[in-house]
Amino acid sequence: MKKFKISSLVYVALFVLLIGVVGFFSAKKLVSFYVNDEIVNNEYDEERGSKLEMDIASNFFGQFEFVNINGLFHRILGQREMNEVVKLKNGHLYHPIGYVDDETLEKYADRVALFDKYLESRGTDLIYIMTPYQICPYHDYLPEGIEEYGNSDVDRMFAYLDVRGVDTLDIRKRMHDDGIDQCDMIYITDHHWTTQAGFYAYGLLEDYIKDKTGCEVDAKITDESQYDIRKYEKWHLGSWGNDVGRYFAGVDDFYLYVPKFDTNLTNDFGQTGKMQELAYNMEPLQKRDVSSKYTYDHVLTNSAQHFVNNDCINDVKVLIVGDSFSRTVCPFLAMGYSEMDFMPDYETSRITMEYIEKYDPDVVIMLYYPSFGIRSTAYEFQVPEDLN
Known about the structure:
With 388 residues, the chain is α/β, with parallel strands linked by helices. It has 2 domains: 93 residues, no CATH class; 278 residues, no CATH class. The protein is built from 13 helices and 13 strands. The strands form 3 sheets. It has an 8-stranded mixed β-sheet with strand order 5-4-13-11-12-10-8-9, with helices on both faces. A 3-stranded antiparallel β-sheet has the order 1-2-3. Helix 4 crosses helix 5 and helix 7 packs parallel to helix 12.
C-alpha cells in the first residue's frame, strides 16, 4: 500500500511538472504574440469562444503535436468525429452546415433581386453562384446520425432567385453533368475548393460572359495545356485538418496553375507584371509547413483587388463579389477581361451607386460558399430601394 502511494505521488508530481512546463512555455508564447506581434496559425471564430480564448488556444505550447496524437488515436479507433469535425465516408473532413429558414433566404434573395434590377437598368448583367462543397447531392457520403442542410439551403436559395428572375449557376449540377464528382474538386482537409475547381469554374463563367456580352476571349486561358501545373505534394493541411491533426485524414496536395503564355497585368498599387507575379504569393510554397492552414489563403490572397489587363482583346469589365472561394477564380478572370475588381463579401456595403457608376462593370459575379452566402454582410449593397 505504501509503495502504491509513493508511486502515485510520483505520477502526480510528474503530471504537475508537465503541466507547469507546458503552461510556462504557453504563457511565454502568448506574451510574445501580444508584445512582439508574433504570427501564429490563429483564425478567430466567434462560434468557438472569445478572441482571448482563441489566442490562448493558438499559443498553447506543443498544441499541434498534441492534436496530431489525438487525431491518430481517433483514426486507430475508427472514430469519425473529433473537435466538431466529421470524417465522411469518402475520407473528407467536414463541419455540417445548419438549416436556414425560408424567411431569411427570401430576404437575401430580395436583396440580390434589387441589386440585379439596379444593374439591369445600367445594362450590367449579374450571375449568382453558390459553390459546391464536401457534401455532393448525388452521393451519400454522410455517416449515420449526422445531419446537414447545406444542399437544401442552396436549392431553396436558387429557387427563390430563379422566381425573381436572377441568373444563377449551379456548379454542382454542371460538374455532375460533366461526369465530375464535386468532392474531387474539394480539399480533403479544408472547406475550400481546389485550384482545379477554380479553373473549371472560370470556364463556365467565360461561357456566360461571352454569351451576355458577345466579347472575344483569349482561347489560351481555358486551355489546360497552356499552363505549368505545379504540384506541391502533401503540402496543405486545411482549416479542418488543423483541428484534428495530420494523421486523422492525411494532408492535401496543393496545385498551382502558372501560365506558359505571356501575361501583362497592372494592379491597384501601380505594379505591372505577369499574372503569377501579381496574383500569387509564392512565399508559402518555398518551405513546407503543414502546421499552417493558410496555404490556400496565403498563396491566392493578394492585397491588390483590382487588375487591368494590358494585353486584353476585349473591353469587358468584371466585378466579382465573393468570399475566399473567389480567390482561385480571380487570376483567370484577370487574364480574360480588360479589368477585374474583387469585392470581399464582408464589404458589400462599399458597393454604392457611386462605386458602380465609377467602375461601370459589364458583368457582376456573386460567388459564395453556402454558409458564407447566408449572412447579412453579403447583401448590404447601397442601391436604391425603389427603382420605378
